[in-house]
Amino acid sequence: MSQINQDDKVKPIDFSTKAHYLTKAFRSPFYSRQEPLNHLKEWGRWADYLSPHAYTCSGIEYFAARNACTVFDLTPMTKYHISGKDALPFLNRLVTRDVSKIKPGRVGYCCWCDDAGQVIDDGTIFHLSENTYRLCSQERHMDWLMTNTLGFDVLLSEETHNVAALALQGPTSCATLKRMGLDGIENMKLFDIRHFNFEDTQLMVSRTGFTGYLGYELWIDPEHAEVLWDRLFEAGNLHGIKPMGDEALQMLRVEAGFIQAAHDFMPANATIRTGHTRSPFELGLGWLVDFKKPVFNGRRALLEEKKRGHRYNLVKLDIDGNKPGCDSYVFTKNKKRVGTVTSATWSPSAKASVALASLEAPHGKPGEELLVEIYYQKELKWSRVMAKARVVKEVFFDPPRKRQTPPADF
């Protein structure tokens, strides 16, 4: 059996209901703390929530994440609670990796596919306790998840509005949490989960993040969101803590080589045209496909693809010059078009223009030299440059200390 439980307590902004094109826009439980810090007074939308592009300057927020610590509001991330005696077999049928290897108190990265072996989304599975999990994703998938519950004894509910969450990222993040009184936080390893007593409630902390550096994600009930924000910034005052918006996060995740739905791939259940989707092998996620499992969505198609080879390779590009190659075509040295840039940024840490790109196979081997067609505008004048680029194997930012346990104290 399955069950839907959608929370309606979060109040949307009071827009006129007469205009058919207006939809709900929720304020995060942290909005009262975010709004005074958002000096730019610009808000984007993440799902149905207001989310700041930047509070002051995306460059300053980027450097805070790399040299101190930043706070990013994760509340809009879609969150599903999955429990019941068939929770494990349900998730093992759903995703490509073996969920039984994600032990209680641990988090696992995963992706899930349609029957054709094309990626619908990627995300994280939190093994909260025996037969109890939380699935976090970029896109919403309740209809698809409910369809897959047929035959499984599970309880499935969306808890996006029921859980407030913050990402605390950067080298001083552990020191900040220690100062906040979270005893033993320094002993957490990558992908660990711990629970702490906090202001008469329970605070869940996971050593996870989307920046490719030392970081933690904090999960709490919305009623305690404001006090969590206050305590966090009090503890981080001497550790350079700053709020961070999405613009800086995008720079950080490209440096770390992390992919994102609707940027580096289109969700397979949302595309209209054939050939616009990607398989795990075409996104560099082949390591998440476990054929030792007897049955999972897309298994047969992925087995066939593994035999015949895949169509595309998602690669990392080091591009000459200082112009980001956003939305650019990629060519061989003989001017044959072989792919597109999916995500790009100027990397302040690598001092280079870096990108993720989807290339037609067999192109994409490390060391291959290519050309990226970049258009840019300066003072109303458009320029075009065919910038030299190289396929690189490693990510652009991967310091060993991000895995250090206990982390260095600052």
Structure description:
With 410 residues, the protein is an alpha+beta fold. It folds into 3 domains: 31-74 and 162-244, Gyrase A, domain 2 (2-Layer Sandwich), CATH 3.30.1360.120; 78-158, Aminomethyltransferase beta-barrel domains (Alpha-Beta Plaits, 2-Layer Sandwich); 311-392, Elongation Factor Tu (Ef-tu), domain 3, CATH 2.40.30. It is 17% helix and 31% strand. The chain has 8 helices and 19 strands. A 6-stranded mixed β-sheet has the order 10-11-12-9-3-13, with helices on both faces. The protein has a 6-stranded antiparallel barrel with strand order 14-17-16-15-18-19. Helix 2 crosses helix 7 (246-255). The radius of gyration is 22 Å and the shape is globular. Mean pLDDT is 94; it is low at 1-8 and 14-20.
Fold topology:
Elements: H1 31-37, E1 43-46, E2 49-52, H2 58-67, E3 69-73, E4 78-83, H3 87-94, E5 106-113, E6 119-129, E7 132-137, H4 142-148, E8 155-158, E9 164-169, H5 173-179, E10 193-198, E11 201-206, E12 215-220, H6 225-235, E13 241-243, H7 246-255, H8 299-308, E14 312-319, E15 329-331, E16 337-347, E17 352-360, E18 369-378, E19 381-392
Parallel strand pairs: 3-13
Antiparallel strand pairs: 1-2, 3-9, 4-7, 4-8, 5-6, 6-7, 9-12, 10-11, 11-12, 14-17, 14-19, 15-16, 15-18, 16-17, 18-19
Helix pairs in contact: 2-7
